[in-house]
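chain below, 85 aa
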Amino acid sequence: MLAGNSVVGVVIIEEFQKCHLDHPIAKLFGECTDLKIKLDRCFWQEKALKRKANFEESKKLKERLEAYRKESSERNPEENNFMQS
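prediction:
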């Protein structure tokens, strides 16, 4: 749930940035680690959603391409044989 897509993501990002500003030395020793883990999970979930959406879109495009190829081969069988040679 990337910052642009989720209020929760925006809040976590803001908290993480504030933690780094408020604890310039302690951040090096794990003060902001819990927020970083939450942020990583949020980004991971967003990436998984995008991956799923992209996969679904690729399936639709593949089906359209197969239909186009089938239609094309039925209309011009001589041309299709020429291209495969």
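Residues 58 and 64 are 10 Å apart (CA to CA). The mean pLDDT is 86.
thats it, cya
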